[in-house]
Amino acid sequence: MSQTKQVKQLDRVIIRFAGDSGDGMQLTGDRFTQESAVFGNDLVTLPNFPAEIRAPQGTIPGVSSFQIHFADHDILTAGDRPDVLVAMNPAALKANLGDLPKGATIIVDTHDFTKRNLDKAGYSSNPLDKLGEVDDILAGFQVQPVDLTGITVEAVKEFGLSRKDAARAKNMFALGLLSWMYGRPTEPTIAFLEKKFAKVADILGANIAAFKAGWNYGETTETFVVQYEIKPATMAAGTYRNITGNLALSYGLVAAGVRSELPVFLGSYPITPASDILHELSKHKGFGVTTLQAEDEIAGIGAAIGAAFAGQLAVTTTSGPGIALKSEAIGLAVMTELPLLVVNVQRGGPSTGLPTKTEQADLLQAMYGRNGEAPVPIVAPQSPGDCFAAAVEAARIAITYRTPVFLLSDGYLANGSEPWAIPSIDALPKIDANFATEPNHSTTNAKGEPVEEFWPYLRDETTLARPWAIPGTAGLEHRIGGLEKGEGHGNISYDPANHDRMVRIRAEKVQRIADSLPPLEVDDPSGEAKVLVIGWGSTYGPIGAACRRVRRAGYNVAQAHLRHLNPFPNDLGDILKRYDKVLVPEMNLGQLSRLLRAEYLVDAIGYNHVYGLPLKAAELAEAVGALVGQAEGRDVDLGEHGTNAPADHEEAPAR
Amino acid sequence: MTTIDLGNPSLRSGTELVPSLAEGETQTGKDFSSDQEVRWCPGCGDYAVLKAVQSFLPDLGLRRENIVFVSGIGCSSRFPYYLDTYGMHSIHGRAPSIATGIATAREDLNVWVVTGDGDALSIGGNHLIHALRRNVNMTILLFNNRIYGLTKGQYSPTSETGKVTKSTPVGSIDHPFNPVSLALGAEASFVARTIDSDRKHLTAVLAAAAAHRGTSLVEIYQNCPIFNDGAFDAIKDNDTKAHAIIPLVHGEPITFGTRDEATGLGDKALVRTASGAIEVADTAAVAADAILVHDAQNPDPSTAFAISRLTDAGYLNRSPIGIFRQVDRPTYDDQARAQVADAVAKVQGSPEDRLAALINAGDTWTVG
Ligand code: SF4
Predict the structure, then answer these.
(1) How far apart are CA A450 and CA A441, in angstroms?
(2) pTM as predicted
(3) Closest CB from A34, A284, A424 relative to B363
(4) For A240-427, CATH number?
(5) A556/B114 Cα distance (integer angstroms)
(6) Residue among A590, A648, A597 at smallest CA distance from A619
(7) Residues of chain A positioned with their CB less than 8 A from the CB of B100
(8) Looking at A403-412, B1-10, B229-238, which range is the least confident one?
(9) Taking the domains of chain B in order of start, what are their residue ranges?
């Protein structure tokens, strides 16, 4: 029977949907995210799934989860610990329980708590049978056992599906229930389902019925008495959409093609977590984009280098193992000085490592992973939406300086999402391909007559870029290749002095990119911080959240984040020297910190985790706090915002 | 899975979309010689091929700036430096992949790959078979000297078993590839074999290869006098060559050996056995209509493959020479460009407007 429901205001919530990898948890999370985005909350998401397409059913390795943190204010991370766990089976409960703070809500589908599934998850007895007893492992949590599957099957009866197909709609039931709990708009999901299942009326009907049944279950039963309200966030004016990093990166590549007026050419070999970019770009032929799925990683970059030589905006996309295979070809692009984007969506390594987990341990590979002195500029996006601008920036550098450029994304950015303020096209930089069209060097022939020649390695004085003369341009026929080039004329040269000079010129050319960069932004609100926290890539969110927490507790800390890892911004050295302590949080064993130490002789201190997951803001805040304490010679207590806070996630920033 | 009929672009000539010389413009071999000093060993077969290519290129009548040569690593891969066209001397084994990018990006380029037996069949084997499978519009010149020259004399993937080299002091135990068989197995649409020292045959094969739309694989037997001298003596020596070379001419009966002045037939002939295999028989002992007539255009590659198997795997006492296969098949690059062109033809508005529409699509919301 319906009863009056209470409505409670919250400023933020972290929900984790967890189930078997066949349970559709990513889709459920995605839909909840879209609903929240349309509603106007700020949000950050964290999908987490096994590498196997269908890992053994019901087991812990087979658990797939999707976490969303949404709030009425600006937030930076997907949150450390979920307030609500939706667990579709015993394995999902067991795998995620350790991440929950005391007091968290657990909504659990009781249907799969059979002896067999409990065994698979490693439970010797059913924890749901012990609620309230002495050995209740769920004590301290608010457990809501619901037979989600059973009710779903009942709700979709009229569509005449097999029991298996009927049960599959349980994720929509869960989505409906959670949508009710948090007052999410339902229209986007209904519209989505209508599109997705347009051709299968019974499945469509069942999914919509399950979704609505979930909503009604919340509204009408006595199990759930509280509905929560999280107001829309105040965000800067603009038009927003929710976007994942891989999609933003793909759009950025299309945008770079439009703004450079060059056809985009992608040579790629499928690899997790980068394949989405290949899939996405293959849809945009209308923009003149060509995608070539090559026979291997090397052929992917080989074809891209060929397209670059032919005058297109060449791109190759991969993850770390693919970069290892492409290294020799990247060296060729360095030597031939052709524009090329090399996208590495980093994952856990070494070797095959953790294909679906995030890491940022390929920085030194990008920096040094080639034979010889082979400098390659490196650009890194800091959030999913930022992948768009980072791709455009990488293209600007590649085309302007005639060089391969690394774009270092990672698995978290690739699949994570956030609201993205859609930029206006006019605000994007114009990139000038500036093809060579005529000879650039005057000389005399054997008869002493003046002749005009084309020298492929005669450089622009400011950028040191060489001319890009593409086949089909009469009079500029020339040969390039991997052998050392004679300065200017570009013919093969084994001259020792020439080699020394060319090695230095190639290094200097990359260094000069720094002259085109804006000053590094340092966020130091009080101007009195003694500690600087500096990072790169996807750690931006956790670092920002950690710094906010430290500041809220009354301490000073400065934050800077590097988009350009090679070359570093010109003012970085001075900035580092302004602070007594420099902390470098990274999802590796200290790669940026090593570069900073080598380059600037600063005592950069590492904060390093390689769990295959984003850094946890609360733990990082403790580390920052401890360092602030050392630097300022006093005890630092972050108080209730510390690791053991009841609801351990980001507070609204002090406004 | 859905399959889409891609149609069959009706382009037939390999150079059809490449700009040609204007009326009255002429080119000579000299126009194609770069100012770089040629640096192969004296007597190297590469010289002969270079000369043949330089004097053949003007016959194409194409604009020099629209010709691109791409090579990998090895002695022969220096080739592009000596031709005054666009060129890239790339990395070991990867030339077919780079050429695939060039050919796919630009329909107006005449693309050539120069490679060797080590470059194409060992380190770059994967790229070679995939280029052939895709049928990208380009011509691959595979210089087969059956040895590693640039690294100074190790056995190659085409060296005969038992060969003593620096890396195989007691004889190579590697079974060799037959490049023609390999290409046919990879479903190449044009496969030929020729000889460095036979300028006329070489030039005729180059012309046919360039005219073919799709990947043309031309194996060129090339002597390396420094590390593998005499590897092709049997097919070059005036006394033995008639018996060693099985000439393949489309539409002609395949015979070799001592020629009968009256019939023009050699004293040996290829015949099909009852089991379907191809074997060598005495011409005199078989009926005239039993002699196999060469059909390079047969859609079924199995006869061409069987003929290719008549090549000696050891010392080369016998080898079919000529165009094994020349069939029409849609090319990867034509189809890739057609897909893009079709999509471009369907869109409206400036790229900027379409980009704005793209990134603003889906569920959006506006603040302020
Ligand atoms: S080593 Fe052999 S193949 Fe190489 S240049 Fe010398 S003769 Fe020619």
Answers:
(1) 10
(2) 0.93
(3) A34
(4) 3.40.50.970
(5) 64
(6) A648
(7) 292, 299, 302-303, 306
(8) B1-10
(9) 29-251+315-329, 332-360
**What is the number of the ligand 1 atom nearest to the C-alpha of B153?**
1
Find, among A419, A450, A641, the residue nearest to A550 by Cα: A641
For position A22, what pLDDT does the model report? 86
**How far is A69 from A83, CA to CA, in rounded Å?**
9
pLDDT at A338 over 70: yes
Query: Which residues line the pocket of ligand 1, CB cutoff 6 A?
Result: B 40-41, 44, 46, 75, 145, 149, 224-227
**CATH code of domain A6-229:** 3.40.920.10
**Beta carbons within 10 angstroms of residue A178's beta carbon:** 24
Least confident of A56-60, A512-516, B108-112: A56-60
Note the pLDDT of residue A49.
84
Pocket test for ligand 1, best of B37, B49, B145 (most atoms within 8 A of CB): B145
Average pLDDT on A226-248 reads: 94
Distance from CA of A255 to the nearest CA of B (A): 7
- Interatomic CA distance for residues B88 and A13, integer angstroms: 57
DSSP A107-165: EEEGGG-SHHHHHHHT-SS-GGGGTTSTT-TTTTSEEEEE-HHHHHHHHTGGG---HHH
Q: Alpha-carbon distance B39 to B42, whole Å?
A: 9
Q: Rounded to whole angstroms, how far apart are CA atoms B63 and A171?
A: 63
Cβ count near A216 (within 10 Å): 15
| pLDDT band of B11, cuts 50, 70, 90 | low
Residue A2, pLDDT above cutoff 80: no
> Tens digit of pLDDT for each residue in B85-135?
999 999 999 999 999 999 999 999 999 999 999 999 999 999 999 999 999
Contacts of B337 in chain A (CB under 8 A): 290
Does B365 sit within 8 Å of A302, measured CB to CB? no
Q: Quick one: pLDDT at residue A82? A: 96
Average pLDDT over every residue of A617-642: 89
| DSSP code at position A485 | B
Ligand 1 mean position to B238 CA, how many Å? Answer: 24
Measure B40 CA to ligand 1 centroid, in angstroms. 6
What digits encode the pLDDT tens for the residues B287-342?
Answer: 999 999 999 999 999 999 999 999 999 999 999 999 999 999 999 999 999 999 99
Say how far apart CA A325 and CA A306 lie, in whole Å: 17
Looking at the structure, give the CATH architecture of the domain made up of residues A522-641: 3-Layer(aba) Sandwich (3.40)
Domain B29-251+315-329, architecture per CATH: 3-Layer(aba) Sandwich (3.40)
Q: Give the Å distance between the CA of B179 and the centre of ligand 1.
A: 20
User: Would you call A332 and B90 a contact, using CB atoms and an 8 Å cutoff?
Assistant: yes
DSSP code, position B366: E
What is the ipTM score, two decimals? 0.97
Which DSSP letter does residue B281 get? Answer: E
**Alpha carbons A59 and A121: distance in angstroms, whole number:** 5
Q: Which atom of ligand 1 is nearest to the CA of B228?
A: 2
SS3 A254: helix
Cβ-based contacts under 8 A for chains A and B: 212
The beta-carbon contacts of B25-29 under 8 Å, at least 24 apart in sequence, are B26/B58, B27/B57, B27/B58, B27/B61, B27/B64, B28/B58, B29/B54, B29/B55, B29/B57, B29/B58
Q: Which of residues 106-165 of B touch A (CB under 8 A)?
A: 106, 108-109, 126-127, 130
For A140-177, how does the pLDDT look when each residue is reduced to its tens digit (9 = 90+)?
999 999 999 999 999 999 999 999 999 999 999 999 99
β-bridge pairing A450-453 and A479-481:
unpaired
Tens digits of residue pLDDT in A396-421: 999 999 999 999 999 999 999 999 99
Q: Which residue lies with its CA nearest to atom 5 of ligand 1?
A: B40
> Per-residue confidence at A641, pLDDT binned at 50, 70, 90?
very low
